[in-house]
Design a protein that fits this description.
By secondary structure, this protein is mainly alpha-helical. Among the domains are: 50 residues, no CATH class; 100 residues, Arc Repressor Mutant, subunit A, CATH 1.10.10. It has ten helices and three strands. Helix 3 crosses helix 5.
């Protein structure tokens, strides 16, 4: 006879938490929802005598720590490569090779990406933190890969899933627009609301055309850009 269980349809969690729980469930051959339910049942029902230092709680904790450390190392490595592109030295190259080995990143691929990324210079100048640098890489890429005209509501949803708050995305947008060396992230009003787009490409004629189109659109806007 099936045990009586209550069901919660929507449980929000950080992507890294979801990955850890999924990996733990798969390792035990258990369906993810059942594993999470049993995990929470054990915490609540055994709260008084539960030793959180014992597995699987310690396993989940240290898996989370390891993932966060790898993520941090990868972001530091990317930022170091961006700084190298601005001021290349043999010593810096050797250091990046060591960082790539530690972060399990292919050195040649990383250097190619940072050399062609138009926002590399901004990443190199960023001193706010690695998460801000990661957002500075993520936001233009997300907009470009989704038709270069993305509603703000969609960006907000995607940013939350990627681990960013919308205020950080807006800071990225402002910083990008302040720089004269990189394509701008601009707000464009549509019939359904505001969208963000990237204007300014390597090709000068295309850049001038897009800037003119953007200027014409701005002239037709009603009200101030709330973003």
């Amino acid at each position: 006879m099936k045990e009586n269980k209550a069901i919660v349809n929507r449980i929000e969690m950080f992507p890294v938490t979801h990955k850890i729980l999924k990996d733990m469930a798969n390792a035990r051959g258990v369906e993810l929802g059942s594993f999470i339910g049993n995990f929470l049942d054990n915490i609540i029902l055994n709260a008084d005598q539960l030793n959180l230092k014992e597995a699987p709680y310690s396993e989940a904790h240290w898996n989370w720590v390891a993932l966060k450390q790898r993520q941090m190392m990868r972001e530091l490595t990317w930022q170091a490569a961006a700084m190298y592109n601005e001021c290349p030295t043999e010593e810096a190259a050797d250091r990046i090779v060591q960082m790539c080995d530690a972060a399990e990143i292919d050195y040649d691929d990383l250097m190619k990406q940072t050399a062609t990324d138009p926002y590399t210079a901004e990443i190199a100048k960023s001193r706010i933190g690695v998460k801000f640098s990661r957002c500075l890489r993520w936001l233009p890429g997300f907009i470009t890969s989704n038709g270069n005209m993305v509603p703000v509501s969609i960006i907000e949803q995607a940013a939350e899933k990627a681990g960013f708050v919308m205020s950080m995305c807006r800071r990225v947008k402002r910083d990008v627009c302040k720089s004269s060396d990189v394509p701008d992230i601009v707000s464009i009003r549509q019939s359904t609301g505001w969208a963000w787009s990237i204007v300014g490409q390597d090709d000068q004629e295309e850049q001038q055309e897009q800037e003119q189109q953007h200027s014409n659109i701005i002239d037709k806007l009603i009200g101030d850009d709330p973003f």
